[in-house]
Amino acid sequence: MADEQPQMNDTTDKMFYSPPLLHIEKNGSVTMSQRQFNRKIGNKHHTYQSLNFIYLLQSGSPWKIEKLKCILHYFQRISEDMPKGVLTFRRFALPNEWIPKWTESQAPLCKIHMRKDQTIEDMHGFLQVDFANEFIGGGVMNEGIVQEEIRFTICTEMLVSVFICEVMLPHECILLIGCEQFVSYSGYATTFKFKDNFIDKAPKDSWDRKLFHVVAMDAIYYMNPLDQYIFENMRRELIKAFTCFRIPKSMEKFMFGVATGNWGCGAFNGDKQLKGIIYQ
Protein backbone atom coordinates (compact mmCIF):
# COMPACT_ATOMS: atom_id res chain seq x y z
CA MET A 1 0.00 0.00 0.00
CA ALA A 2 2.00 2.95 -1.27
CA ASP A 3 1.82 6.29 0.49
CA GLU A 4 1.45 9.54 -1.39
CA GLN A 5 2.45 12.67 0.43
CA PRO A 6 -0.60 14.85 1.13
CA GLN A 7 -0.69 18.54 0.36
CA MET A 8 -2.50 20.02 3.34
CA ASN A 9 -3.96 23.49 2.95
CA ASP A 10 -7.23 25.33 3.53
CA THR A 11 -8.85 23.63 0.53
CA THR A 12 -7.87 20.18 1.81
CA ASP A 13 -9.26 21.01 5.23
CA LYS A 14 -12.69 21.63 3.71
CA MET A 15 -12.79 18.41 1.68
CA PHE A 16 -14.37 15.98 4.15
CA TYR A 17 -17.99 16.70 5.04
CA SER A 18 -18.44 13.06 6.06
CA PRO A 19 -15.36 11.15 7.21
CA PRO A 20 -14.03 8.36 4.99
CA LEU A 21 -14.40 5.04 6.81
CA LEU A 22 -11.98 2.15 7.27
CA HIS A 23 -14.06 -0.97 6.75
CA ILE A 24 -13.65 -4.57 7.89
CA GLU A 25 -11.41 -6.71 5.64
CA LYS A 26 -10.28 -3.71 3.56
CA ASN A 27 -6.77 -2.29 3.68
CA GLY A 28 -6.81 1.47 3.57
CA SER A 29 -5.74 4.67 5.25
CA VAL A 30 -7.09 8.11 6.05
CA THR A 31 -4.72 11.06 6.28
CA MET A 32 -5.89 14.43 7.54
CA SER A 33 -4.53 17.62 9.01
CA GLN A 34 -4.79 18.17 12.75
CA ARG A 35 -7.20 21.01 11.97
CA GLN A 36 -9.57 18.56 10.30
CA PHE A 37 -9.78 16.41 13.44
CA ASN A 38 -12.24 18.70 15.22
CA ARG A 39 -14.46 18.93 12.10
CA LYS A 40 -15.18 15.22 11.92
CA ILE A 41 -18.75 14.08 12.45
CA GLY A 42 -19.86 10.47 12.22
CA ASN A 43 -23.00 8.37 12.18
CA LYS A 44 -23.60 5.56 14.68
CA HIS A 45 -23.51 2.03 13.26
CA HIS A 46 -23.44 -1.29 15.08
CA THR A 47 -19.92 -2.09 13.83
CA TYR A 48 -18.56 1.32 14.84
CA GLN A 49 -18.14 2.99 18.22
CA SER A 50 -20.08 6.11 19.17
CA LEU A 51 -18.07 9.29 19.75
CA ASN A 52 -20.60 10.95 22.03
CA PHE A 53 -19.50 13.12 24.94
CA ILE A 54 -22.86 12.74 26.70
CA TYR A 55 -21.65 9.57 28.45
CA LEU A 56 -18.69 11.42 29.96
CA LEU A 57 -20.97 14.22 31.11
CA GLN A 58 -23.38 11.88 32.87
CA SER A 59 -22.90 11.16 36.57
CA GLY A 60 -20.45 8.44 37.37
CA SER A 61 -16.91 7.83 38.53
CA PRO A 62 -14.51 10.65 39.50
CA TRP A 63 -12.01 9.61 36.83
CA LYS A 64 -14.55 10.65 34.17
CA ILE A 65 -13.96 14.21 35.39
CA GLU A 66 -10.21 13.72 34.97
CA LYS A 67 -10.74 12.50 31.39
CA LEU A 68 -12.91 15.53 30.67
CA LYS A 69 -10.17 17.79 32.00
CA CYS A 70 -7.74 16.25 29.51
CA ILE A 71 -10.11 16.55 26.55
CA LEU A 72 -11.15 20.11 27.41
CA HIS A 73 -7.49 21.03 27.79
CA TYR A 74 -6.92 19.80 24.23
CA PHE A 75 -9.68 22.04 22.89
CA GLN A 76 -8.30 24.98 24.84
CA ARG A 77 -4.85 24.35 23.34
CA ILE A 78 -6.06 24.23 19.75
CA SER A 79 -8.27 27.30 20.23
CA GLU A 80 -5.16 29.24 21.19
CA ASP A 81 -2.78 27.72 18.65
CA MET A 82 -4.11 25.34 15.99
CA PRO A 83 -1.56 22.55 15.28
CA LYS A 84 -0.34 22.32 11.71
CA GLY A 85 0.67 18.69 11.58
CA VAL A 86 -0.78 15.64 9.83
CA LEU A 87 -2.35 12.41 11.14
CA THR A 88 -2.74 9.02 9.44
CA PHE A 89 -5.05 6.17 10.44
CA ARG A 90 -4.40 2.90 8.62
CA ARG A 91 -6.20 -0.43 8.66
CA PHE A 92 -4.45 -3.67 7.68
CA ALA A 93 -5.95 -7.13 7.19
CA LEU A 94 -3.47 -10.02 6.99
CA PRO A 95 -4.20 -12.25 3.97
CA ASN A 96 -4.77 -15.87 4.93
CA GLU A 97 -1.89 -17.05 2.74
CA TRP A 98 0.53 -14.85 4.72
CA ILE A 99 -0.16 -16.62 8.02
CA PRO A 100 3.04 -18.50 8.95
CA LYS A 101 3.12 -22.25 9.42
CA TRP A 102 4.12 -22.02 13.04
CA THR A 103 5.07 -25.69 13.44
CA GLU A 104 7.58 -25.39 10.57
CA SER A 105 9.15 -22.10 11.65
CA GLN A 106 12.90 -22.13 12.36
CA ALA A 107 13.01 -18.46 13.39
CA PRO A 108 14.62 -17.92 16.82
CA LEU A 109 12.71 -16.14 19.57
CA CYS A 110 13.53 -12.45 19.77
CA LYS A 111 15.01 -10.78 22.83
CA ILE A 112 12.81 -9.00 25.36
CA HIS A 113 14.14 -6.15 27.49
CA MET A 114 12.02 -5.30 30.53
CA ARG A 115 12.00 -2.07 32.50
CA LYS A 116 9.68 -0.45 35.04
CA ASP A 117 10.78 3.18 34.87
CA GLN A 118 9.10 4.15 31.57
CA THR A 119 5.66 3.95 30.00
CA ILE A 120 4.97 2.79 26.46
CA GLU A 121 4.44 6.38 25.28
CA ASP A 122 7.90 7.30 26.61
CA MET A 123 9.56 4.90 24.16
CA HIS A 124 10.33 7.13 21.17
CA GLY A 125 11.48 5.43 17.98
CA PHE A 126 9.59 2.22 18.78
CA LEU A 127 6.36 0.81 17.45
CA GLN A 128 4.08 1.45 20.44
CA VAL A 129 1.28 -0.95 21.33
CA ASP A 130 -2.26 0.11 22.21
CA PHE A 131 -3.92 -2.66 24.24
CA ALA A 132 -7.08 -2.17 22.25
CA ASN A 133 -10.66 -3.24 22.48
CA GLU A 134 -11.95 -4.85 19.27
CA PHE A 135 -13.91 -1.61 19.00
CA ILE A 136 -10.96 0.75 19.00
CA GLY A 137 -10.96 3.24 21.85
CA GLY A 138 -12.70 0.85 24.22
CA GLY A 139 -14.47 2.74 26.99
CA VAL A 140 -12.71 6.06 26.42
CA MET A 141 -16.02 7.92 26.09
CA ASN A 142 -17.47 6.26 29.17
CA GLU A 143 -16.10 4.63 32.35
CA GLY A 144 -12.98 2.98 30.86
CA ILE A 145 -9.65 4.22 32.21
CA VAL A 146 -6.91 1.68 31.57
CA GLN A 147 -4.09 1.70 29.02
CA GLU A 148 -6.04 2.32 25.80
CA GLU A 149 -8.43 4.86 27.29
CA ILE A 150 -5.59 6.80 28.92
CA ARG A 151 -3.62 6.96 25.66
CA PHE A 152 -6.67 8.20 23.74
CA THR A 153 -7.32 10.80 26.44
CA ILE A 154 -3.82 12.29 26.52
CA CYS A 155 -3.38 12.00 22.72
CA THR A 156 -6.84 13.36 22.01
CA GLU A 157 -6.61 13.19 18.21
CA MET A 158 -6.64 9.40 18.43
CA LEU A 159 -10.36 9.73 19.09
CA VAL A 160 -11.02 10.16 15.37
CA SER A 161 -10.25 6.44 14.92
CA VAL A 162 -13.23 5.63 17.14
CA PHE A 163 -15.75 6.56 14.49
CA ILE A 164 -13.89 5.88 11.24
CA CYS A 165 -12.75 2.33 12.12
CA GLU A 166 -15.05 -0.68 12.18
CA VAL A 167 -14.64 -3.44 14.74
CA MET A 168 -11.37 -5.35 14.28
CA LEU A 169 -11.29 -8.99 13.21
CA PRO A 170 -8.65 -11.43 14.55
CA HIS A 171 -6.36 -10.90 11.53
CA GLU A 172 -6.62 -7.09 11.50
CA CYS A 173 -4.86 -4.19 13.17
CA ILE A 174 -5.13 -0.40 13.08
CA LEU A 175 -2.16 1.97 12.98
CA LEU A 176 -2.36 5.49 14.39
CA ILE A 177 0.47 7.65 13.07
CA GLY A 178 1.47 11.15 14.15
CA CYS A 179 -0.92 11.65 17.08
CA GLU A 180 0.51 14.29 19.40
CA GLN A 181 0.42 14.13 23.21
CA PHE A 182 -1.22 17.21 24.77
CA VAL A 183 -1.52 16.24 28.45
CA SER A 184 0.69 14.88 31.22
CA TYR A 185 -0.96 12.67 33.83
CA SER A 186 -0.39 10.62 36.94
CA GLY A 187 -1.85 7.35 38.17
CA TYR A 188 -3.58 4.49 36.40
CA ALA A 189 -7.15 3.21 36.32
CA THR A 190 -9.04 4.59 39.33
CA THR A 191 -6.05 6.74 40.39
CA PHE A 192 -5.74 8.48 36.99
CA LYS A 193 -5.41 12.27 37.26
CA PHE A 194 -4.99 15.14 34.80
CA LYS A 195 -1.64 16.68 35.67
CA ASP A 196 -0.63 19.52 33.35
CA ASN A 197 -0.08 20.77 29.84
CA PHE A 198 2.39 18.67 27.83
CA ILE A 199 4.58 20.02 25.04
CA ASP A 200 5.32 17.15 22.67
CA LYS A 201 8.84 17.66 21.31
CA ALA A 202 8.91 14.53 19.17
CA PRO A 203 10.43 15.15 15.71
CA LYS A 204 8.31 14.95 12.56
CA ASP A 205 8.59 12.89 9.40
CA SER A 206 8.51 14.19 5.82
CA TRP A 207 4.69 14.23 5.94
CA ASP A 208 4.76 16.59 8.94
CA ARG A 209 3.55 13.80 11.25
CA LYS A 210 4.91 13.34 14.76
CA LEU A 211 7.19 10.31 14.80
CA PHE A 212 4.78 8.14 16.74
CA HIS A 213 3.51 4.86 15.29
CA VAL A 214 0.92 3.23 17.55
CA VAL A 215 -0.62 -0.14 16.67
CA ALA A 216 -3.99 -1.14 18.11
CA MET A 217 -4.11 -4.86 18.91
CA ASP A 218 -7.04 -6.45 20.70
CA ALA A 219 -6.69 -9.55 22.88
CA ILE A 220 -9.25 -12.19 23.81
CA TYR A 221 -11.14 -11.73 27.07
CA TYR A 222 -11.07 -14.96 29.09
CA MET A 223 -13.90 -15.43 31.55
CA ASN A 224 -12.18 -18.71 32.39
CA PRO A 225 -8.39 -18.06 32.34
CA LEU A 226 -7.72 -21.72 31.47
CA ASP A 227 -9.28 -21.16 28.05
CA GLN A 228 -6.22 -19.21 26.89
CA TYR A 229 -4.24 -22.46 26.70
CA ILE A 230 -6.61 -23.93 24.11
CA PHE A 231 -4.71 -24.24 20.82
CA GLU A 232 -7.14 -22.20 18.73
CA ASN A 233 -7.03 -19.33 21.22
CA MET A 234 -3.22 -19.33 21.25
CA ARG A 235 -3.22 -19.44 17.45
CA ARG A 236 -5.60 -16.47 17.32
CA GLU A 237 -3.29 -14.41 19.56
CA LEU A 238 -0.26 -15.43 17.47
CA ILE A 239 -2.01 -14.26 14.30
CA LYS A 240 -2.96 -10.97 15.93
CA ALA A 241 0.60 -10.34 17.12
CA PHE A 242 2.07 -11.28 13.72
CA THR A 243 -0.41 -8.97 11.99
CA CYS A 244 0.64 -6.07 14.21
CA PHE A 245 4.41 -6.62 14.20
CA ARG A 246 4.86 -7.85 10.61
CA ILE A 247 7.53 -5.92 8.72
CA PRO A 248 6.49 -4.93 5.16
CA LYS A 249 8.95 -6.17 2.52
CA SER A 250 9.74 -2.55 1.62
CA MET A 251 11.03 -2.01 5.18
CA GLU A 252 12.83 -5.29 5.84
CA LYS A 253 16.22 -3.54 5.75
CA PHE A 254 15.16 -1.36 8.69
CA MET A 255 15.24 -2.59 12.26
CA PHE A 256 12.82 -1.30 14.87
CA GLY A 257 11.76 -2.29 18.35
CA VAL A 258 8.30 -2.76 19.80
CA ALA A 259 7.30 -1.04 23.04
CA THR A 260 4.62 -3.09 24.75
CA GLY A 261 3.57 -4.53 28.09
CA ASN A 262 1.12 -6.98 29.62
CA TRP A 263 -1.17 -7.24 26.60
CA GLY A 264 -4.51 -8.82 27.44
CA CYS A 265 -3.59 -9.37 31.07
CA GLY A 266 -5.22 -7.61 33.99
CA ALA A 267 -8.95 -7.29 33.32
CA PHE A 268 -8.73 -9.72 30.37
CA ASN A 269 -7.22 -12.44 32.61
CA GLY A 270 -4.28 -13.18 30.33
CA ASP A 271 -1.16 -15.04 31.46
CA LYS A 272 1.87 -12.70 31.33
CA GLN A 273 4.31 -15.52 30.63
CA LEU A 274 2.20 -16.92 27.79
CA LYS A 275 1.75 -13.48 26.24
CA GLY A 276 5.52 -12.92 26.49
CA ILE A 277 6.16 -16.08 24.46
CA ILE A 278 3.53 -15.04 21.90
CA TYR A 279 5.31 -11.68 21.52
CA GLN A 280 8.56 -13.44 20.70
Automatic annotation (TrEMBL):
GO terms for cellular component: cytoplasm; nucleus. It is an enzyme of class 3 (hydrolase). Keywords: Hydrolase. Belongs to the poly(ADP-ribose) glycohydrolase family. Substrate binds at residues 133, 147, 188. The active site is at 130, 148, 149. Residues 39-91 form the PARG helical domain. One of its GO terms (biological process) is nucleotide-sugar metabolic process. It comes from Rotaria sordida. Residues 99-278 form the PARG catalytic Macro domain. InterPro entries: PARG_cat_C, PARG_helical, Poly_GlycHdrlase. One of its GO terms (molecular function) is poly(ADP-ribose) glycohydrolase activity. This is poly(ADP-ribose) glycohydrolase. Its EC number is 3.2.1.143.
